[in-house]
Amino acid sequence: MRTTLSRSLVFVSALALSGGAIAETDDQPVMIEIKRLSLDTALTIARTAIEACREQGVQVAVTVVDRGGHPQVVLRDVLAMDLALEVSYRKAYTAMTFTSNTSSLEDRFTGPFSVGKIDNVLLSAGGVPIQASGETVGGVGVSGAPSGEVDENCAQAGVAAVEMDLEMASF
User: Fold this and answer.
1) Residue 18 lies inside a defined structural domain of this protein
2) Is residue 25 part of a domain?
3) For residue 130, what is the domain's CATH number?
4) Cβ-based burial of 105 (10 A; exposed 0-12, middle 13-18, buried ≥19)
């Protein structure tokens, strides 16, 4: 018992000392500025994606997530299936998490215990990351079209509608 306690105290002391050394050498700020999408920007992305799909005769659901993967805007067109809501969220979450269009991830994780089996990750076309000056600020997912390619084109149209604004806001 005494040996275990001594080892624990030595370990904790070493850990505390090493943490102190790291804190002294790094000049970490006390607070970090984090860029976030405004509600109006997220809404513009979602509305534009819906309109792009409507132009193709398709009714879909669209979810825009923030940089933490939390839904910021969720829209479902009148005839889009209820299931499309969950699928659009998962596509948006996946695009934001992997900073990549979800179509490029479809064949990436094929093992039975791969990342693709984690909750909320959906490796299917229709998700696009939202970036500003190379920094990921969210993701948009579209679901309900006859193909993931159409879903992704609509999602890309939504991002394209605000792309210039996002780049200008970064300066």
Assistant:
1) no
2) no
3) 3.30.450.150
4) buried
pLDDT tens column, 106-145: 777 666 666 656 778 888 899 999 999 889 999 999 999 9
Torsions phi, psi of 31, nearest 5? -130, 155
What is 107-167 written as a DSSP string?
A: TT--STTSGGGSTT---SS-EEEEEETTEEEEEEEEE-SSSHHHHHHHHHHHHHTTHHHHH
pTM of the predicted structure, to 2 decimals: 0.79
Q: Residue 12 and residue 146: Cα distance in Å, rounded?
A: 58
> Residue 54 belongs to what domain range?
39-169
Question: Is residue 140 a contact partner of residue 127, using CB atoms and an 8 Å limit?
Answer: yes
Q: How many domains does the chain have?
A: 1
Helix, coil or strand: residue 16 = helix
Whether 14 maps to a domain, the answer reads no
Q: CA separation (Å) from 113 to 97, 106, 110?
A: 18, 15, 8
Neighbours of 159 (CB within 10 A): 21
| CA 5 to chain centroid | 44
